[in-house]
Amino acid sequence: MVNAFDYIAGTSTGGILALALACGKSVLEVQAIYLKLKDKIFTGQRPYSAEVMEEFLKNEFGLEKTMSSIEKPK
After folding, report:
1. What is the DSSP string of 3-44?
2. DSSP label at 48?
3. What is the Cα–Cα distance from 27 to 15, expressed in whole angstroms?
4. What does the pLDDT look like over 5-43, one tens digit per residue?
5. Would you say 39 and 53 are in contact if contact means Cβ atoms under 8 Å apart?
6. How many CA atoms lie within 13 A of 30 on its CB side?
């Protein structure tokens, strides 16, 4: 793999995608995460359920994962 970026950033769902990429997930894996995310969370009326999003993120990344906990982003 070629290192192409020193930093990855995003806001809102872009932050979730940045976290997935920094964790070493492939672009196809990130796409699958996003498609699951939109189908589970972005349904019904706004504002969307924070509880559903929190549970989704815990299941996808674990309880302790943060950007600062990634030793060497990929």
Report:
1. ---S----STHHHHHHHHHHTT--HHHHHHHHHHHHHHHS-S
2. P
3. 14
4. 777 788 888 988 988 888 889 999 999 999 998 888 888
5. no
6. 15
